[in-house]
Amino acid sequence: MSEHDEGRRAFIVGAVGAGAVASTLVQTAYAKTPAHQPPHKTAEAPDTTHVIDNGDAHGAFFNDDNAATVAAFAERLMPGAPGKPGARDAGVLNYIDLALAGAYTDQQDFYRRGLAQLDAYCRKAHSQSFVKLTPAQQDEVIGAMEQGKASEFTYPTAQAFFNVLRTHTMEGMFADPVYGGNKDFAGWRLVGFPGTQLYYTPADMASKQAFTRAPIVGLQAQAKASTRKV
Predict the structure, then answer these.
(1) pLDDT in tens, 143-183
(2) Domain limits, the chain
(3) N- to C-terminal Cα separation, the chain
């Protein structure tokens, strides 16, 4: 992994800290979605009442082309390395896909327009779509967006689209796995966050050492386990 990749990873990990920030953001967003309302359904947002599946799964909102673009973009924001999970390892695409069919339905048009403009810019600058660019070219495109120098963007602006994708990548990496990302607690393990615990022993409370107990099993893992027993 290059020094550039290391720097980007360090920025995201440092911004999240112990992981509580991303968890709070996502829980607040989902709390605003009325429990009695099903996910918004359009031609691009089929029923999503099935058990959440972390990984490269999509189809709640993204088509195959858009899913590939978002997955590649997120991986450049949070690149994986041996022993260090990245966006693909944590199922960030699955998280964003499900969020846009649920709590973030108000951002569907934002994503559709942003991805179309991203494709137009890449084809103008490099004559290829984002997913077909080399990692160095993808980083160049991302840098131009971050600095507001990418043409072809009107709404959303290049900077606005970059900032939302970065925020959602962070959420997908570090939020509770129940929301479809942070597969196998990859993000939490990366920053040493043990997740919410059902209890803390007197020894835990008295210890001055870092808390190392494994995260509790999330709701999704419980659902998968129940499915296997049937």
Answers:
(1) 999 999 999 999 999 999 999 999 999 999 999 898 999 99
(2) 3-229
(3) 43
CB 82 within 8 A of CB 120: no
Residue 126 amino acid letter: H
pLDDT in tens, 9-26: 555 555 555 344 444 445
Asked if 166 and 77 touch (Cβ cutoff 8 Å), the reply is: yes
Question: Is-contact 51 224, C-beta < 8 A?
Answer: yes
Full-model pTM = 0.72
Q: Are the C-beta atoms of residues 76 and 69 closer than 8 Å to each other?
A: no
